[in-house]
Amino acid sequence: MLPAYAAYAMLSLAPILVLGVPPIWTQPEQVHLSYPGVPGSMLVTWTTFNKTESKVEYGVLGGRLFDMAATGSASLFVDSGEEKRKMYIHRVTLTGLKPASAYAYHCGSDAGWSDVFYFTALNDSTSFSPRFALYGDLGNENPQSLARLQKETQLGMYDVILHIGDFAYDLHEDNARIGDEFMRQIQSIAAYVPYMTCPGNHEATYNFSNYRNRFSMPGQTESLWYSWDLGSAHIISLSTEVYFYLMFGQELLFKQYEWLKKDLEEANKPENRAVRPWIITMGHRPMYCSDDDQDDCTKFDSYVRLGRNDTKPPAPGLEDLFYRYGVDLELWAHEHTYERLWPVYGDKVYNGSTEQPYMNPKAPVHIITGSAGCREKIDPFNPNPKEWSAFRSRDYGYTRMQVVNSTHVYLEQVSDDQYGKVIDSIWVVKEKHGFSAWL
Ligand SMILES: *[C@@H]1O[C@H](CO)[C@@H](O)[C@H](O)[C@H]1NC(C)=O
Ligand SMILES: *[C@@H]1O[C@H](CO)[C@@H](O)[C@H](O)[C@H]1NC(C)=O
Ligand SMILES: *[C@@H]1O[C@H](CO)[C@@H](O)[C@H](O)[C@H]1NC(C)=O
Ligand SMILES: *[C@@H]1O[C@H](CO)[C@@H](O)[C@H](O)[C@H]1NC(C)=O
Ligand SMILES: *[C@@H]1O[C@H](CO)[C@@H](O)[C@H](O)[C@H]1NC(C)=O
Ligand SMILES: *[C@@H]1O[C@H](CO)[C@@H](O)[C@H](O)[C@H]1NC(C)=O
Ligand SMILES: [Fe+2]
């Protein structure tokens, strides 16, 4: 029998019980990883709808679960839609991880823990040969490549994923519920391998605030531009959108340009280029493409390529900058197709040789991979592409890349329409890197 005071206590709770137990808004969701750029580290980001502490408990896979713990912080993100929906974005950086070791982790707080996930800390050796999946333009609706990417990632086929802009369609829609759903959808990939991003035009609403708040890339630019190293590659992520959304601050365009110049200068110091000879860029809108829409890249004087002269001062483009510093490979998306170019500079082809165009190419190699799948479907091609267009496909799919060693990079295109068939592949081989490689 209940003591009298307990019965009174229950009675006094009755009105609350009648109203119902409040739902749990402290449950972690939308878990994803990114690499902070420091060997032996990994950053875990997730969302809760009520404020909680930010903890990750982890341990070497196969060892004692959760024998290590790290804490971080949460920032309140208020979406700018009508409902002004609030969410807490939690960030915890794990440090001192053993390179190439696998870890199991969960994240959350004593108010709720996520499922258990696992990842492999990136191997920090410059002779490591990292494997990437890359694509842009993946949405909630019609995400054709997603199932294949989920399975291949979980099978351990990739060390890193590069998402080259345009997410969810769009992160801010339905008061950012589409963003929530997209982040839940990619958790099946992004909670297992670092998911590295750059912004695309679909992130522009409310000054890219959903993008800037939801992702956690290295550096101090709220994920807009940054660089990091892996194996023998220096990888630069940039915002092509600074050339188009001048209303969010023309100074961003110039700031990024100056940063790019400094970063490329640093990467080109002989002692740096000797250990990380490959410089690879990723940005959303390409300099060249042969799609049949009126996008920037379909014009000779693309903003991204040549800059703009309607700003004060005129804004420099990126083609000369990248050429001058010997960028080897440029990854783009935005066009909902796949296109591989012969080595190109100034609208002209510079094959290594006619027989082996990618053997010591005399200009950067461009790949456009924006066909992962989204509600906008696939784009049409111009029937008369220019001479720099080497291979084109309108199949849904994505690209695999392996930076094998200091001289060899391998790329291949997977068709989801053709059940995972590899429909294109190249080896880019360079015995020499840097500007002098062009001469
Ligand atoms: C918890 O989150 C829900 C959903 O966002 C919100 O309605 C509620 O006011 C929050 N409660 C507290 C105490 O913050
Ligand atoms: C990292 O990669 C290099 C090159 O493949 C390999 O020799 C080394 O054993 C790897 N490190 C670990 C800890 O597995
Ligand atoms: C847009 O966001 C960027 C990055 O945070 C910021 O520097 C800029 O001032 C913002 N622009 C406007 C108009 O708020
Ligand atoms: C400015 O750029 C446009 C193309 O973007 C070009 O047609 C025009 O000639 C340029 N004007 C000047 C003054 O350079
Ligand atoms: C570049 O190489 C490819 C492949 O051999 C060839 O089809 C193309 O015509 C070459 N382009 C030029 C401009 O030499
Ligand atoms: C790089 O890898 C390629 C392809 O596996 C191989 O043929 C080549 O000998 C390697 N080069 C070096 C410098 O290890
Ligand atoms: Fe786009």
UniProtKB/TrEMBL annotation:
Limits of the Calcineurin-like phosphoesterase domain: 131-338
EC number of this enzyme: 3.1.3.2
Keyword Hydrolase: yes
Catalytic activity from the UniProt record: a phosphate monoester + H2O = an alcohol + phosphate
Family matches, as InterPro entries: Calcineurin-like_PHP, Metallo-depent_PP-like, MPP_PAP, PAPs_C, PAPs_N, Purple_acid_Pase-like_N
GO molecular function, one term: acid phosphatase activity
Domain Purple acid phosphatase N-terminal: 28-120
Signal sequence segment: 1-20
Residue ranges annotated for the Purple acid phosphatase C-terminal domain, each copy included: 363-425
Superkingdom of origin: Eukaryota
Alphabetically ordered keywords of this record: Glycoprotein, Hydrolase, Signal
UniProt KW Metal-binding keyword: no
Pfam families the record matches: Metallophos (PF00149), Metallophos_C (PF14008), Pur_ac_phosph_N (PF16656)
Similarity comment: Belongs to the metallophosphoesterase superfamily. Purple acid phosphatase family.
Protein name: Purple acid phosphatase
